[in-house]
Amino acid sequence: MKKSVQFQLSFMMFLEFFIWGGWFVTLGSFLGNNLNATGAETAMAFSTQSWGAIIAPFVIGLIADKFFNAERILGILHLIGAVLMYQMSQASEFALFYPYVLGYMIAYMPTLALVNSVSFNQMNDPAKQFPVVRVFGTIGWILAGLIISFVFKWDSIENIGNGMLSNTFIMVAIASAILGIFSFLLPKTPPQGKGEKTSISDILGLDALKLLKDRNFLVFFVSSVLICIPLAFYYQNISPFLTEYQVENSTAWASIGQMSEVGFMLLLPFFFKKYGFKKTILFGMLAWAIRYVLFAFGDAGDLFFMLVMGIALHGICYDFFFVSGQIYTDSKAGDKVKSAAQGLITLATYGVGMLVGFWVAGKIVDKNVIADGAHSWQDVWLFPALFAIGVFVFFAILFKNEKVEYKA
To answer: Across residues 66-71, what is the average pLDDT?
Structure first.
């Protein structure tokens, strides 16, 4: 792969995740402060990610794989996203905001697969070359948080109170417009399935359902869906939680989670090979419970280090469970249904699991509203902590240990 192409792909990945990290992290605080949204309404807004994940396979399977170059669809979707992002910045109430965020996520979620398609199409050694390109996505997410906190200070307690978080959508709209235009300059990625018939079963990965006859895979599949409920609590509540605790530069603090992802991704192969798949997954589940206990009993004063530790555990929580799970799914599926199996897991977790998770998180938050619109965060965080322990016990008892080779 030429250096010029590598630069193009890296810049594409940087903008792709700069865009996501530039508004999604602070969304909860924006909704509560700018739009006076309830927990249930906040859950609806975050659930648009799940609806986008459910609809995305149809965009890819019925349009991108059939008729148009991936880079062109990527450009069009990001240009549409730029317009919707600007409209989100102008919304003054939740009823006006929701249709725009729903439309945006339906446009954005397919781009996650499209940037991968564009990248892989240019690589002769994806296992070696893709991580070098993909890491720029993580850098983009982190930089978005640092810019919000340290350059513009939109997430300072004073500026949040003044409604400045609406500017995050304008920043992202500009980035989305840049990526939309830049996408048309990317290397050509023609449709891969032109002329081939595609069924709904193919698109949703339903051919992989036969894997559920394997007891171990069924236990893993159910656990993957269930663990998304604690995961949803983190995405939906971390920003409002830190803001309510009067933590300055909360977006920058939250980006520690993405920094830890990079570090723990490097540790994963060693942990996986030494302790095996089951222990790695269990360690990831346990990390979810520990992080929420840290959130429940930490504070913004002397115990602030507990909040930072909880955020830093994100790398273990995510990498040790979800990345290990992708490797396990790959090993169980075999070549024929490999793509279908990964698609099914993605649909089940980011689609169904997160959809339920955001709904539950919204209900729990609304149940724990106290005086002046504040929340009993200890009670909010103990729910996903106990839930994660329940999933941990379920997996530990029912999953029989088996040898899984680590394939990066």
So the answer is: 85
CA–CA separation, 127 and 105 (whole Å):
29
Give yes or no for a contact between 226 and 356, defined as CB atoms under 8 angstroms apart. Answer: no
- Taking phi over 0 as left and psi of -120 to 50 as alpha, with beta for the rest, 123 belongs to beta
Q: Is 375 helix (H, G, I), strand (E, B) or coil?
A: strand
Question: pTM (2 decimals)?
Answer: 0.91
**Nearest CA among 350, 322, 364, 374 for reference residue 43:** 364
| Residue 367 vs residue 211, higher pLDDT | 367
| Residue 9 φ then ψ, to 5° | -65, -40
Residues 6+ apart with CB under 8 A from 99: none
How far is residue 61's CA from residue 343's CA, in Å, rounded to a whole number? Answer: 11
Give residue-wise pLDDT tens across range 170-217. Answer: 999 999 999 999 999 999 988 865 656 667 776 666 777 888 999 999
Residue 380 makes CB contacts below 8 A (sequence gap 6+) with 233, 237, 241, 364, 365, 368
Residue closest to 234 by CA, chosen among 302, 315, 148: 315
Distance (Å, whole) CA 85 – CA 10: 23
